[in-house]
Design brief:
- The complex is a heterodimer of chains A (about 110) and B (about 120).
- In chain A, strand 5 and strand 6 form a beta hairpin.
- Helices cover about 0% and strands about 45% of the residues of chain A.
- Chain A has no helices and nine strands.
- With about 110 residues, chain A is an all-beta fold.
- Chain B is an all-beta fold and about 120 residues long.
- Chain B has no helices and eleven strands.
- Chain B is globular.
- The chains are: A mainly beta (about 110), B mainly beta (about 120).
- At the A-B interface, strand 3, strand 7 and strand 8 of A face strand 5 of B.
Chain lengths: ~110, ~120
C-alpha cells in the first residue's frame, strides 16, 4: 500500500539541530511535503517539492532527499519550534494523498 | 487573500449522516489545477486525507472511506461540501478543508487550510 512513515518523537535542546526522516518506497518517484502543526492550530506548509521553502518560513527549516527518504532539518532549534511535524505525499495515479503518522518535536 | 472556513454540526449521533461545508474566498474552483480537499484529525492522532474535488469536477476519495464519502462543489457559492454517512465514534475528529493550487501536475500539497471544525459522534 502507499504509505510513508516517520518517527513518533524527536527531542532536542535549544540551539541544536533536529532531523526528522520520512520514509516510503513511493518517495523515490514522488515529492514529499512537510507541515508544522501546533496544538489547536491548523497545519502550516513548511517544505514543498522535497526541498523548497515557502515565503515566510524561516531559513532554519530545510528539506533534503535521498532515495526513498526525505529529511526535515531544523537548524538552531528554538522553543517555538516545539510542535507536531507531518510529511505528506501522493499517489498521483490514484490521487491518493497520504500523511505520515506525525513526529512530536520536544525542545528540552 | 485566500481563506477557508469549515462549518457543520458539532455533535452527530451514531449512524447519522454528517454534512460539512467549506466556504472559501480569494480563489476560484473554476481555475485550472485548483483543488479543495477534506482532511480530518481525531483527537491526539495524525492527519488523515479524506477526499478532494478539482476544478474539472473530478472527485477522489480515500480508499478506506470511499463507500461512505461524497464530495461536491458549488462554484457559484464558493463552497465544497463533504458528506460522511453512517458515522460512528471513530469519526470523532477535527475536520479541515484545504486548498491545493497545482493539483493537476506532479506536485500536490496544501497551501491554505481552514481553522477546522470539531465534530463529535455521540453514541
Amino acid at each position: 500500500s502507499y504509505e510513508v512513515t516517520q518517527p513518533p518523537s524527536v527531542s532536542v535542546s535549544p540551539g541544536q539541530t533536529a532531523t526528522i526522516t520520512c520514509s516510503g518506497d513511493a518517495l523515490r518517484n514522488q515529492y514529499a511535503y512537510w507541515y508544522q502543526q501546533k496544538p489547536g492550530r491548523a497545519p502550516v506548509l513548511l517544505i514543498y517539492k522535497d526541498v523548497e521553502r515557502p515565503s515566510g518560513i524561516p531559513a532554519r527549516f530545510s528539506g533534503s532527499t535521498s532515495g526513498t527518504s526525505v529529511v526535515l532539518t531544523i537548524t538552531g532549534v528554538q522553543a517555538e519550534d516545539e510542535a507536531d511535524y507531518y510529511c505528506q505525499s501522493i499517489d498521483n495515479t490514484e490521487k491518493f494523498v497520504v500523511f505520515g503518522g506525525g513526529t512530536k518535536l520536544t525542545v528540552l | 487573500q485566500v481563506a477557508l472556513r469549515e462549518s457543520g454540526p458539532a455533535l452527530v449521533n451514531v449512524t447519522q449522516t454528517l454534512t460539512l461545508t467549506c466556504t472559501f474566498s480569494g480563489f476560484s474552483l473554476t481555475t485550472n489545477n485548483m483543488c479543495v480537499s477534506w482532511v480530518r484529525q481525531p483527537p491526539g492522532k495524525a492527519l488523515e486525507w479524506l477526499a478532494l474535488i478539482d476544478w474539472d469536477d473530478d472527485k477522489y476519495y480515500s480508499p478506506f472511506l470511499q463507500t461512505r464519502l461524497t464530495i461536491s462543489k458549488d462554484t457559484s457559492k464558493n463552497q465544497v461540501a463533504l458528506i460522511l454517512s453512517n458515522v460512528s465514534p471513530v469519526d470523532t475528529a477535527t475536520y479541515y478543508c484545504a486548498r491545493s493550487s497545482d493539483c493537476g501536475g506532479v506536485e500536490f500539497y496544501f497551501d491554505y487550510w481552514g481553522l477546522g471544525t470539531l465534530v463529535t459522534v455521540s453514541s
